[in-house]
Specification:
This protein is α/β, with parallel strands linked by helices and about 290 residues long. The protein has helices at about 15-25, 60-75, 105-115, 130, 145-150, 170-180, 220-235, 250-260, 280-294, and strands at about 5-10, 30, 30-35, 40-45, 50-55, 80-85, 115-125, 135-140, 160, 180-185, 185-190, 195-200, 210-220, 240-245, 260-265, 275. Bound molecules: ribose-5-phosphate (R5P).
Length: about 290
């Protein structure tokens, strides 16, 4: 395995540190200075020939994305640059839902390539369509790590629940690993207002069972709150929410708890109070296989 320069981006310093430890290297610091107008300046000393930049793009997404681009641009200069972006913002805008809308993730892919990124490693990207915009990308599934965590929870006849059809496969996969059942709720979103609605009739009896809501991300918390309300109307036991990316904007966590959700469990793709499932083993493995075959 060639020597990897593990660059700790300002958005993901803790995660980078953990990945570096697993690779047996010392993380290279990306020194950040933010000017009064909000511009970021990055300084990286002696980046090396194989640079893996670790930087999630949670809020503020544009700033974190720009910092990733600046780091890649600095490292590029003939080097093999891999961008580890566990939470990849803009992936939800993978198509024009309404006429005239920009397919944002297509531009993000182009910008990263233009800055010198040869390969992207991400975690639970929103969709296959979002992924199709990248030349070279690996999508790590956090499902085995979340399922392992769930296997240690004391649950009553647990059932995995996807809030919508888009996440059905993820919840099924999660359920398969735990050898439990899964169901998919019928969620619809008003594409103009963003309002979410979920059909109350489930068609299966879930009364008295504990539920684990499984989603790729929790942002405003709207999807989880509505899902929990529907499950409770159907007599569910305890409800837990698991996701890869806990953005939890504003008071999302409080709203989720107020809706009767016992706990939120997420990976450390986005740093925060609920981000207790460590992705570093999977990321270190992905980097080892990329650089050993590069
Ligand atoms: C949507 O399709 C995603 O999979 C998530 O369900 C959604 O983006 C979560 O956002 P929020 O927490 O704002 O409902």
């Amino acid at each position: 395995l060639p020597e990897i320069s593990l660059i700790a981006g300002p958005a993901s310093a803790d995660l980078a540190e953990k990945v570096a430890k697993r690779l047996g290297v010392r993380p290279v610091n990306a020194e950040l200075r933010v000017f009064s107008d909000g511009e970021s300046k990055i300084k990286i000393e002696k980046p090396g020939r194989n640079c893996a930049i670790v930087q999630s793009t949670h809020p503020p997404p544009d700033t974190h994305l720009m910092q990733a681009l600046l780091m890649a641009h600095k490292c590029a200069d003939g080097a093999n640059v891999c961008a580890v972006i566990p939470y990849l913002s803009y992936a939800r805008q993978d198509r024009a839902f309404l006429e005239g809308e920009v397919v944002s993730i297509a531009l993000v892919a182009k910008l990263l390539a233009a800055a010198g990124v040869r390969h992207v490693v991400t975690v639970d990207i929103h969709s296959k369509l979002a992924m199709s915009h990248f030349g070279s990308i690996e999508n790590i599934s956090s499902t085995p790590l979340l399922a392992e965590y769930a296997s240690k929870m004391k649950l009553k006849r647990p059932i995995a629940v996807s809030p919508d059809a888009g996440g059905a496969e993820r919840a099924k996969d999660f359920a398969r690993q735990l050898k439990i059942d899964s169901i998919t709720l019928k969620k619809s979103r008003d594409r103009t207002t963003g309002e979410v609605a979920i059909e109350e009739k489930l068609g299966v009896d879930v009364s008295g069972r504990d539920a684990i809501l499984v989603d790729d991300m929790i942002s405003s918390g709207g999807s989880i709150v509505k899902s929990a309300q529907v499950l409770r109307k159907n007599g569910i036991g305890k409800v837990y929410a698991m996701c890869a990316h806990a953005l939890l904007i504003g008071d999302a966590a409080q709203k989720i708890k107020a809706a009767g959700v016992q706990d939120i469990i997420a990976t450390n793709s986005v740093p925060g109070e609920y981000s207790n499932v460590d992705l570093s083993p999977a990321i270190a493995q992905a980097l080892k296989s990329y650089y050993s075959s590069a």
